Amino acid sequence: xxxxxxxxxxxxxxxxxxxxxxxxxxxxxxxxxxxxxxxxxxxxxxxxxxxxxxxxxxxxxxxxxxxxxxxxxxxxxxxxxxxxxxxxxxxxxxxxxxxxxxxxxxxxxxxxxxxxxxxxxxxxxxxxxxxxxxxxxxxxxxxxxxxxxxxxxxxxxxxxxxxxxxxxxxxxxxxxxxxxxxxxxxxxxxxxxxxxxxxxxxxxxxxxxxxxxxxxxxxxxxxxxxxxxxxxxxxxxxxxxxxxxxxxxxxxxxxxxxxxxxxxxxxxxxxxxxxxxxxxxxxxxxxxxxxxxxxxxxxxxxxxxxxxxxxxxxxxxxxxxxxxxxxxxxxxxxxxxxxxxxxxxxxxxxxxxxxxxxxxxxxxxxxx
Length: 368
Ligand SMILES: Cc1cc2nc3c(=O)[nH]c(=O)nc-3n(C[C@H](O)[C@H](O)[C@H](O)COP(=O)(O)OP(=O)(O)OC[C@H]3O[C@@H](n4cnc5c(N)ncnc54)[C@H](O)[C@@H]3O)c2cc1C
What we know:
The protein is an alpha+beta fold and 368 residues long. It is built from 12 helices and 9 strands. 55% of the residues lie in helices and 14% in strands. It is globular, with a radius of gyration of 21 Å. Flavin-adenine dinucleotide binds next to strand 1, strand 3 and helix 12.
């Protein structure tokens, strides 16, 4: 098993790392204060082809694999997890549209590849569902979907909705009559994701907006699950690594009692533990990516879910330790440590809470 990264893979990682440090970092604190949508920066990433990282080249994408997707998201999230999350959703929804195929893919994919439209994900969570009713060949959507990342800037939403027969998958062009984007209460972190609620008041959609048909919504979503878990895990790894690197640099320059605080055993051991957890997570994530690349869907799903679970906890651990290592300064807006801690806390909640992922792994291991 050769874990050395190839030239193309390294180029993706290094380009993204440079972009994150040179373009995302300046102005980040101010964007976070204002909860500003990073539209211009997102536009630059789209121009670099980041709107369709994994789509095949004949569909306009960069044709990259799961490992490259993970590396790009890790690098973005090491600096700015909000933008990394928007990019992840966009790429995953482009994948979903491509796999659904048909008229909807022909109509909307080019705008997603170019970045002309940002696409967001509005999934049914538990009891909170949208309802879709057939009206001749069209569909009428009703209901409220809260906490949709990117909704404030979206040009397209992919949504799951309950139909008379089960679950349907729909593409909703935005803005649209009958669909309003409603502000959410101020969030603790990930403040630049453009989080908002989508309210559907008998919104009429053309028949071609329904994406499942030849393949069921469940089948399409299950097929994409490993890549979704992998993308979320990569973002958490990036955030964890970002917190570790900032803490390492701070500990080297902060002096107390005549020496830098990285000479104190308590601080050194914290830093070692942070690095250790990041590397262990990276191992799991890369194994999941390798299984996905090899087409071993079951193994990819198992490992990617494990990575998603471990990653959310690793991000929270590293971000909290990062604040601790920064001491009182870490608790202030003067340093990035506190933002990373606020951002990290969202990760065990998103796209499958840690409780839900644990249960899914238990079912896989033991059964219902
Ligand atoms: C920053 C942020 C961004 C988000 N972005 C998006 C997005 O882009 N698109 C989107 O569709 N959604 C998004 N969400 C929504 C997110 O996926 C949901 O918040 C999540 O699914 C949990 O749903 P809930 O908030 O209703 O919590 P609940 O389902 O009410 O859960 C509350 C608690 O109970 C636990 N719980 C619930 N059911 C079970 C069960 N059966 N067994 C054991 N424990 C259970 C949960 O794990 C949690 O700890 C986002 C949320 C946040 C915070």
